[in-house]
Every structure is written in C-alpha cells, then in structure tokens.
Amino acid sequence: MTDTISSQKIMDTLRENLAAISVTVDRQEASVVTEVGDGIAHVSGLKTAMAGELLQFTSSSTGRDVYGLAQNLDRDEVGAVLFGDVEDIKEGDECRTTGRVMDIPAGRAMLGRVVNPLGQPIDGLGPVNATHRRPIEFKAPGIMERQPVCEPVQTGLLAIDAMVPIGRGQRELIIGDRKTGKTAIAIDAIVNQRETDMVCIYVAIGQKASTVAAIRESLARHGVLEKTVIVAATAADSAPMQYIAPMAGAALGEYFMYNDAEGNPADEKHPGGHVLVVYDDLSKQAVAYRQMSLTLHRPPGREAYPGDIFYLHSRLLERACKLSDANGAGSLTALPIIETQEGDVSAYIPTNVISITDGQIYLQSNLFFQGQRPAVDVGISVSRVGGDAQVKAMKQVAGTLRLDLASYREKQAFSQFGSDLDATTQYQLNHGAHMMEMLKQQRYSALDVRDQIISIFAAKEDFLDDIDLNHVNLFRDGLAKHMAERHPALRSALVKGKLSDEQQDRLKMHIAHFKEQFLDENPNKKRAEDVEAAAEETVDHSGSTTLAQE
Question: The CATH number of the domain where 515 resides is what?
C-alpha cells in the first residue's frame, strides 16, 4: 500500500518551511574611491549616504577595513574624512555605506584608561571591555529637560571658587596666552574631585604625547586617575582625529550623565552621574577643522575658518547641562580652553567661544610673570552663574572681594603718579596687596571650601594686614590646619548656611588667638618694605617718593 501525497499536504509543508526562514536584507551601497590625500577621500556615487554617516573603506592592497566620516554630500560624489591607517586606502578601493552614525565604546571600563578619539586604548594596558556605545554627535537636551545650575564644582583654587565660581552643568571658559597656566587650573580642578562623586574626562587635542603622559602620571600620583578618562589626539594624529576628539570626550561624559552607576537609564529612581570634561584646547580643534574643511574645498570665511565653526563649538558645548530631576538630575560640566595670541580676546575663535560659554576665567601673562599664580585677571573674568554655584557662607564672605581687588588695582596704578598718599589710600594699598598674596596657590595645593571661607573672612576682617607679605600664605595654610585640628565642629558648620553673628564672633576669637601664636613664631621683619614694593612705590614719612627696587 503506497501513501498518497495530497496537494494540501505539500502546501502546508512549504508554508511551515517558509515561516521558519528568517531573512534580513542588508542594504549597502558600494562605490569606489576616486581621489585620496591628506586624510580626505572623495568617493563617486553613494547617493544614499547621510551626513555624518560612517563609511567603510576596504584596502585592495592589505584587505583591511578603514572607516571614514561622510562630510560633503555633493551631487556626484561624497567627501569623507578618514580615521586610522589612511595610507592603506588608494584610488580605486571599495567604499560602502554602513547605515549608522559614528559612535564610540563607552562604559565604566574606560575609567583610568587613555584612549584615542575612536575609543581604542593607547596606554598599552590591553583592550577595554566597554558595555555601551555612544554616538559622537548627540542632540543636546532641550530647556524642559534641564534645570538651573545650583550645585558648586569646587576647584580648590581660592581665586576661582571665591570670585569666578563654577557650578555643575556650567560651561566655564579658561582663556589666556600660551604658558599662562590654563591646563594647570583644569588639572587642579580634576585633582580636587578625588573625594567627590564626579567622573572626570580630560581631552587632549594637538598636544605632545609626552605632555599627555606627564598629565596621566600626575593624575595617578594624586589618586584621581581611576575616576578619569583621558582622550588623546596628539599632535602626531591626523586632523580628523583631532576634530572628533572633543565630541568623543563629550560622548563618554554623556554615558555617565544619562545612566546610573549600574548602567541603567537615569530617571527619578536612578540618579545620573556628574561629569567634569576638560577640552584642552578648542583652538587646536578649530585649526584641525579648518584644515579638513579647506581640503574638502569648502569656502573659507573669516581668518580662513569655515563658516560653520561657530556651530561646531556651540553643538559641542550645548551638551553640557544640569538635567532635571525627572531625567536623573545628572550633570556635565565643561571647561573648554582657548589659547589667545598676545592677549587678543577679540579674535574669531575666542569671541565665538566666549559667546557660547557661561563665563570665562581670563589668565593674564603679566600677572603670571609677576608670580601671581593662578594668574586670574578679576577684571575681565566672570561667571554668569555666580552665587548660585557657591555655598552660602562663601557667597557671604566673598561678596566684596572682587570690588576690593578692583579698588586696589586702581589705587596701585594711581599711586605711581602721586607724591603723597593719604591714610585711606595707604590702607587700601596695604589691604589689597595682602588680599592678592592670599590668592596665590602652588600646584596641587587645593584648599577645602571651609578653609577658603575662613581665609577670606580673616582677610576681610583685616587680620592679614599687619603680617609680612611673604608670610601670608604661611599664615593662611597654618590657620586652616589650626581650625581643622582645634575647632572641627565650627569649621564643618561653615558649609551648612550663612555665617551667624555668633559664628563670626567665634571665628574672630580663634583667628586672633592663632595670630598671636603665629607672630611669636614668625615675627614681622620687613612688612613696610614689602607693602611698598607691592605698590611699586616707596612712600617715606616725609611724603617724598622713590621708585621701589624689586
């Protein structure tokens, strides 16, 4: 007896087999490279390529893949910038679209590592097991997804925390000539986050590899490398690598801001992290972008920079924000660095970034060479967040500090032309000189905000005015140690609100007591000469004037 196969059974079997087949259609458009040079490739065709899309180039000589970023979308060709081994790509090599924008690996495994802008480790410590990927270009949160900046980022630098405060989610520009201490301020700010919950990202653009290695060693020595990611596009790297470096750093920072400690998306129940990103420096990124754009035959504008250079930096810096509570209340604080030429802040790139950021810390060469470190010019430096980024007691005691220093600068310049100075002017010169001396800090000698409040309070109440100028820093540091050891309760209470009258009286008493001990151990020697030298003029008792000898 033979089995008969009905047509219905055949149809049912075919349907079952067809249903079990899983087919995905991979739509890739392929073309060839028509021209390549200076890290730029021109590809014919690619009608479906998107702006900012990742392109895959295959070398005909080595067989290896090199990736590029679509930039110019012309009618008959696409202009792309190449990353990686650009020498492998030759005219006639194949290029394919990938259908995805450029992204980099991200995650907590990146902490403590030095990576290039593609997220690949360059510190010789093996591969990075990243758990996520983030696009290098990402739309900044809208107004409704943010909240006002309200928490301070303590740099440990008295001149900044008192007069140019930085808040979590703020964009504060550090600007000045070459070799005025811009990177030093940024590194000190990172080192001061050792005991906080902030993750730090340092983006080095166009610097020597030895400089990046030295910075890594400094961060490791001060115990903050394990919570820091260094993104390095050195001077030896191509212009496209230097161009994407800041955006790669922002993408890494956004991972921590948009996710909680376990990697879950941040919301009200899963608080996002807090990140400090340093872009060192955007002047070199602008030069790299100019080189790229000119090679892509884009029309040059002012100072030969492309017309969209402002948009490039604004897209980058708008990603720094303080998120609303509904989005996890995370924050990304940006410290972009800009290098000026001979103090010219009216150049194209400096004016662009000044207008994008929420304030600037301006470093002056003259102050630096006079020994004022950090060389912050309080006249042009400003924070548009202001007191909202300070603890209440700091806001209370530092309120008149900027005015006092401005008055001192004015009197200092005026006193050079006067033959006799009245008692009020002499007091202001003496008081201002001691204030300026108090603001001096060595590298990696951060002051806790409580010690800053005590120091400014002591200066404001004239406790420093009759101490030798060269003893002011010694007095400030000794006072901080004395208060921490002898009066820790009062010191700790300073950050809980405004100073009460009772707290002020107790502070005055303790400072006066410490001052007696200090003057016994460090008696004044040449206070009058030091003050007169600081004012750049010696005034004798008879009213005659002589030029101060340095």
Answer: 1.20.150.20
**HSE (CB half, 13 Å, CA atoms) of 470?**
10
Count CB neighbours of 122 within 10 A.
17
Task: Please give the single-letter amino acid code of residue 102.
Answer: M
Q: Which pLDDT does position 12 carry in this prediction?
A: 85
Residue at a domain's end among 70, 100, 130: 100
Q: Report the alpha-carbon distance of residue 472 to residue 456 in Å, rounded.
A: 12
Q: How far apart, in whole angstroms, are the C-alpha atoms of residue 532 and residue 544?
A: 13
Which domain-ending residue is among 360, 390, 420? 390
Residue with tokens 């502070």: 507
Task: Please report which helix (H) or strand (E) contains residue 248, including its range.
Answer: helix 239-258
Q: pLDDT for 190-235, tens place per residue?
A: 999 999 999 999 999 999 999 999 999 999 999 999 999 999 999 9
- The answer on whether 404 is annotated among ligand-binding residues is no
In total, the chain counts a number of residues equal to: 550
Question: DSSP alpha helices (H): ranges in 439-471?
Answer: 449-460
CA distance linking residue 82 with residue 63, whole number of Å:
16
Ligand-binding site membership of 178 (annotated): yes
The mean of the pLDDT values for the chain is: 90
The annotation status of 139 as a binding-site residue, yes or no, is no
Query: Is residue 439 assigned to a domain?
Result: yes
127 CB-side CA count, 13 A: 4
pLDDT the model gives residue 406? 85
Of 133, 298, 384, 506, which one is the catalytic site residue? 384
Let me know how many helices (H) and strands (E) the chain has, helices first. 17, 20
The enclosing H or E element of 125 equals none
The pLDDT tens digits of the residues spanning 81-100 come to: 999 888 889 999 999 999 88
* 114 pLDDT more than 50: yes
**Is it the case that residue 547 has pLDDT exceeding 50?**
no
- pLDDT at residue 535 tops 60: no
Ligand-binding site membership of 508 (annotated): no
451 close to 483: Cβ distance less than 8 angstroms: yes
Rg of the Cα atoms in the chain: 30
> Which CATH number fits the domain that encloses residue 77?
2.40.30.20
Q: Is position 181 annotated in a ligand binding site?
A: yes
169 belongs to an annotated ligand binding site: no
Rounded to two decimals, the pTM is 0.88
Q: Which domain holds residue 95?
A: 28-100
How far apart are alpha carbons 272 and 266 in whole angstroms?
Answer: 5
The amino acid at 261: A
Residue spans of beta strands (DSSP E) within 308-368 = 331-339, 359-363
Concerning whether 298 is annotated as a catalytic residue, the answer is no
